Amino acid sequence: MDNKITVKLPALSKNEALARSIVAFFAVELNPTIDELGDIKTAVSEAVTNCVVHGYPDGDPGEITITAEISDETLHITIEDDGVGIEDIAAARQPFFTTGKDEDRSGMGFTIMETFMDALTVENRESGGLRVVMVKSLKRKIQE
Question: Any idea which residues carry the catalytic annotation?
Fold first, then answer.
């Protein structure tokens, strides 16, 4: 591990922009392109929004833990909540999957994360809630 941060935020929609900015700023150490930063910010936004909307459906703002780690030329991002988890992760990862509870949702969150990152893992936590792990390899353009 070269560097690591962990941030805990209330699961409120207004914290989505803060979360994406924190991770993007942390990733600057790897000297990413503007497009790579955009990919990272979009993936983080989708993961945090899923926590807010689906992890805590009763409206009780739980907590989101975001960990970003740089190892060699790779950014690892873990986003966890203590919410309700996902009953069928395989189904939820399919494009356009939605629970039907909110007609304004496109059901593309995991598909977007998977498209913009090199790897995506989604799993229910034993203690409850969900863990999303995203990996993005970035070629360093400046030597330390």
Answer: 46, 50, 105
